[in-house]
Amino acid sequence: MYHPFSVTETTKTAWTILKKNFITIIVYSFISFLLLSILGIITEYLISPEAFWGKMAVSFIMIFIQAYTTLGLYKLIFTVIDSEYYEFEFRQVLPAFKGIVSYLVVVFFIAFLITTFHFLMVRLNDYPNIQTLLENIAAIFTLYIALRVMFFITFIVDDQSGAIESIRQSFQLTKGYFFKVLIMLGIILLFIALPAALSQYDGFGFISIAIIFTYPFVNIILAVTYRKLVYSHLDVDDDIAETN
Length: 244
Description:
This protein is mainly alpha-helical. The chain is built from nine helices and no strands. Helix 3 crosses helix 9. The longest helix has 31 residues.
């Protein structure tokens, strides 16, 4: 290939993009974190446990805002990449309603599959050997599927794809790049899991605040990986390399 995919180059490019647009991306992440935290406080402390519909309403709003801010972050990432040499307007980073619906369809479908599998495992409590075997098979299968569909959100944002189309496109994009994508997923999980693990021993909450910085970075890595895989499949040089 003219410009083969490189794990090292992809990670370096993601870091460069974060450094160049640090204030913009961190401010957006902080506002998103603040909104979700406020809704969490409302749900936990201001709405009584008996107020079922109130909790449901706030939970639905939280899910919608989470989807909106997540897609908005990817929209912002792609915008700062594509608008490196000219100014962009705020409206350019607002996600489309169709994209939010597509994202939620995929997320709820995945949640349905996980819930269904959980109920199946509960029914097999009396058969521990079968249960263990199925759990091991499910773990391997889940990792494989996670690797193949991990770019559905980037297609929803960058290509305005629907729910099913974005999953199909992600499968096509990762074809032939399984182990390199596995390495990128490992890097992403490291930046997510390490702060989460350290936060258990952080009495002052400094590590929790650090997530505001690591969260956008892992999403930048995912977005850059997606773009570089697209260019590799097209067998052309990529413009993202200009940021190195």
